[in-house]
Each structure stands twice: as C-alpha cells, then as structure tokens.
C-alpha cells in the first residue's frame, strides 16, 4: 500500500464527514462532500488497476462487492433496530435514495471499469472519459433543475464517479513518471486551488440564483481536486511515508483503514 493513499483516504473520509455536519457548527462550514467522494472514486480507480488486470471478472468483482456489502448490511440492520431507518429490500440491496448511495454506486461502476481497463489502453481510456463527459453534459441539459444541489441525481454521481475512477487508472499507469515528482508542488497548489474553487462556487450559487446554471462546476472542481491530490501524493510519497511512521501517522492510518465504516455510521451518529 502506498503511504500517500492512506493519507488521501483519511482526508477524503474527513471531508465527507465534515460535509454532513449541518446544524452542528455555529457557522456554515459543513462542506467538502463532493471533493471527498471524487477523491474516493479516484483512489479506487488507482488501486484497482493491478488486481483487475490479473483476475477474471466474477471472482474479482464479487470479492469487492462482498467487502462493501457486509459492513453496509450490518450497519443497516443496526439502524433499523434502533429506529433510524425503516426496513426495506432496497435499503439492503441498492439504497440509492439514502445517504449511503456510494456503496451500490461504486459496486455497479466496478463492472464497466473492469472491462474498460481490461480491453483499452490509456489513450482509449482517455477517449472513454471524454465520451462520459459528453454523456454527463447531455444528461445535465436534459435533467437540469433550477435549484442548487451539490450531489444531484444518481446518474450524475455515477458518471462523474466513473470519470474519476478512469482518471485514477491513468494516474496509476504514469505513476513512475519523473514529471510527476518534479511538479509535485504545483500539483499540490492546484489541488488547493480546485478545492477553493469548489467552495467559492458553492457559496456564490447559494447567493446569486443566475449562477445555478453553472452548478456542474462543483463536480468539475471536485474531480480536478482529486486528480491533483493524487499527483501530489505520488510526488510526496517518501515524505508521507516518513509522516505515517510518526505518532501523527497512527490516527491517520486508523481513519484510513476505517474510512468505509466511518462513512456508513456517520449519519446515524
């Protein structure tokens, strides 16, 4: 496991958790969900390359889905028992209408991701990304609603998640590039800028109604943030490895290891 992946996974978990603290803070600083989710998708796309290329589809896919659905099922049983949610088949199979949409979404995205990765080289995967961007744009024009939403309908989430996963696979293919190491500070500054762009976009759209037409930029900034964070992480891998060996690295490692569980329980808490 790359040390920078542990750090980025912990950052993603904290961003998503922070975004769900509406009403907890005295000020409106509960944000970060979109960049955090995009970072999770990109990390997944990066980490899945090696295993997907070596294994047959069904054993590979079923192992991943079981890993996701066992904790999801346990959490759902507990939340039903305590009365936080009502029991239903969709709650346990495909709960896209509740806040745990990420699990079934990525479980489905594993399927096209596997076959695109298996069949297409980096250049062709870039073409798939561009086609997915076109599909996202078309769906945005057809399904656009004149209201602000950071995480719109599941189809939007799935499309930008798929884009982020494929970007993660391209970053994996080029992880040994000397250019990434030499431009690591620039990548980090760009990541911070993209995160700032997301925040500014969200704030402005809640105050200037006409800008709602451009709300797709929240996803653009989110995916760009994730991509630049991954590039910066690769560049700073040696420094991050030293950090993870310190006392500060221990809680980061725990958050990273438990990131799925944190995501599943935070709403009930």
Report on the architecture of this protein:
The protein is mainly α. 74% of the residues lie in helices and 0% in strands. It contains 13 helices and no strands. It has helices spanning 3-19, 33-54, 57-81, 89-93, 102-119, 122-143, 154-173, 178-182, 184-205, 217-235, 237-244, 249-257, 259-265. Helix 1 (3-19) packs antiparallel against helix 2, helix 3 packs parallel to helix 13 and helix 5 (102-119) crosses helix 7 (154-173).
Describe the structure using short key phrases:
269 residues, 13 helices, globular
Total helical segments: 13
Quick check: average pLDDT?
87
Distance between the termini: 30 Å
The sequence of SSEs as H and E is: HHHHHHHHHHHHH
Helix content: over 70%
Task: Quickly give the structural class.
Answer: mainly alpha
Unreliable residue runs = none
Major sheet: size, sense and barrel closure? none
What's the gyration radius in Å? 18 Å
Number of strands: 0
Task: Tell me the fraction of residues in β-strands, as a range.
Answer: under 5%
> What is the overall silhouette?
globular
Task: Set out the fold topology.
Layout: H1 3-19, H2 33-54, H3 57-81, H4 89-93, H5 102-119, H6 122-143, H7 154-173, H8 178-182, H9 184-205, H10 217-235, H11 237-244, H12 249-257, H13 259-265
